[in-house]
Design a protein that fits this description.
The chain contains 13 helices and 17 strands. It has 413 residues and is of the alpha/beta class. The strands form four sheets. It has a six-stranded mixed beta sheet with strand order 2-1-3-8-7-6, with helices on both faces. A five-stranded mixed beta sheet has the order 14-13-15-16-17, with helices on both faces. It comes from Stratiformator vulcanicus.
């Protein structure tokens, strides 16, 4: 079954609001074994809405619409269905009575325009709305091909709480049953670029492969998105296990977690298990490493010092005089001295230091910096060259520092 989601609203096409309904519906339909092939967003314009519905009917078996079912002049979903399929709107007294009772139960006076919400395209069936004034619309129309197949339309309100309940209680039970289920999983990677990861994985990410494995990147974190189709949970789990095994064999310790697990979660978990303490001094990352760690709620007693320093303060901590804007080797030496002194002064197991940016190439893009980690065996220093604007550069640098700590903690286990 080919499914499509159509989101109605100029606030969506203008970017004033984020379309979270389509994301939720795509996930819900996948759980029902139905793949969404198209997501369409249409402004509050009747001819364009009607055209979107006609196009959807010609290529999809199921179309779920969100938004445009209110009583105002820019709520055009019902008119769009009526226009697209030449189904005149007809008044439904029972739905009107239900809307009126809802207003009365809330102690409110119903405006005359709410009568519009009881108008339905000829041949449509109302979808009850237990918690709102906008009933949905279920409409089946011919796809226009010789097979006499139909396209099912389910129009739901744009209010997420109403849409989700109506889908679960009244739309999902109407969908064709299938013996196939679709499940998704994510594997998170750090320490290599997107193209390098794909090259090392080889055929794992090939198109038309089962399970489907796609790659996305966000601020240095590479995520493998796995889509498994099977007849049971066990079938999908076996497919996930096969991808995990291959990924670990080919990428090794670049793999750090799954699903919503971030680098800071792994670091916090390892610190807690080992009972080790950490002190952090940050300049280029402006406190972002400490911020990420403290959000895990597992390191309150393990991060014994977390300070954010100006470039001059960073140099002072390392007992160095002069400008902190140094050449690459000098900056690495400064970071190493800072990490060692930080660990000693804080009496911590680890001292993590992130230097200032070495230089500024231009006003938009950050330059290199040094990350240093000191422990009982000595000090390790790496140079990190950020990519992107300042906010992305800081985020990537913070992740690089957390990854350095993650790898060191793994050796201590």
């Amino acid at each position: 079954m080919d499914a499509e989601i159509v989101a109605i609203g100029s606030e969506l096409t203008r970017g004033a609001k984020l379309d979270t309904n389509s994301q939720w519906l795509s996930t819900a339909l996948a759980e029902a074994g139905i793949t969404v092939h198209w997501q369409v967003t249409v402004a509050d314009d009747l001819p364009r809405i009607a055209q979107a519905f006609r196009t959807a009917a010609g290529r999809s078996d199921l179309v779920i619409i969100t938004g445009g079912l209110g009583p105002t002049q820019d709520d055009l979903t019902r008119d769009g269905l009526a226009t697209a399929f030449e189904r005149p709107l007809e008044f439904d007294q029972s739905q009107f009575d239900q809307i009126r009772r809802l207003f009365e139960s809330r102690g409110r006076t119903m405006a005359e325009r709410n009568r519009l919400q009881a108008m339905f395209p000829r041949g449509a069936t109302p979808i009850p709305n237990p918690i709102g004034t906008a009933p949905g619309i279920w409409l089946e129309v011919s796809k226009g091909d010789r097979s006499e197949s139909v396209c099912r339309f389910a129009a739901l309100p744009g209010v997420p709480s109403e849409m989700k309940r109506m889908y679960a209680e009244f739309v999902r039970p109407r969908l064709p049953q299938t013996d196939q289920i679709i499940r998704t999983a994510r594997i998170n990677i750090f320490g290599a670029g997107e193209s390098e990861v794909e090259e090392r994985l080889g055929e794992l990410t090939a198109r038309d492969r089962s399970p489907e494995v796609g790659i996305t990147a966000h601020e240095g974190t590479i995520t493998l998105r796995i889509v498994a189709r099977g007849t049971s949970e066990e079938d999908c789990a076996r497919q996930f296990d096969a991808v995990r095994t291959t990924t670990t064999e080919k990428l090794g310790d670049l793999v750090f977690g799954e699903e919503d697990v971030e680098l800071e979660h792994i670091v916090a978990e390892h610190l807690a298990k080992l009972g080790r303490t950490l002190a952090i001094a940050e300049t280029a990352t402006a406190g972002l490493v400490a911020h990420r760690l403290f959000l895990t709620e597992r390191v309150d007693d393990l991060v014994v010092r977390a300070i954010t320093l100006s470039p001059n303060q960073f140099a002072t901590l390392a007992e160095m005089t002069g400008s902190p804007q140094l050449a690459e080797n000098e900056m690495k030496g400064l970071a190493a001295d800072c990490a060692l002194k930080l660990r000693r002064d804080a009496r911590s197991d680890f001292g993590l230091a992130i230097s200032p940016f070495e230089t500024v190439r231009d006003a938009q893009v950050a330059a290199g910096l040094a990350i240093s980690l000191a422990d009982e065996t000595g000090v390790e220093v790496v140079r990190h060259v950020p990519v992107g604007d300042w906010s992305i550069a800081r985020s990537r640098a913070a992740k690089a520092a957390l990854d350095l700590l993650r790898r060191s903690l793994a050796r201590h286990r």
